[in-house]
Write a structure and sequence with these properties.
By secondary structure, the chain is of the alpha+beta class. The chain is built from three helices and three strands; from the N terminus they run βββααα.
Amino acid sequence: MKKVNYKPTGVCSREMIVECDDNNIVTNVEIVGGCPGNTVGVSKLCVGKSIDELIPILEGIPCGFRSTSCPDQLSKALSKLKETN
């Protein structure tokens, strides 16, 4: 089991806690802050999927006028989690 606590930048959420198993399958995502409906929905959609499947789906998504979003920041958290041993 691997876990990362990620501090996103440029978005409303304050922290992302992501866990995966030894095969890089996401087992839990908790996003603290942000738009509750969106962050809970994104979190639930990620569970059971591989990190490699999720990163290209989530990266680069903007939020309004911002060049980043909670999903984009989640892709960065997933990349960091993938790098952990």
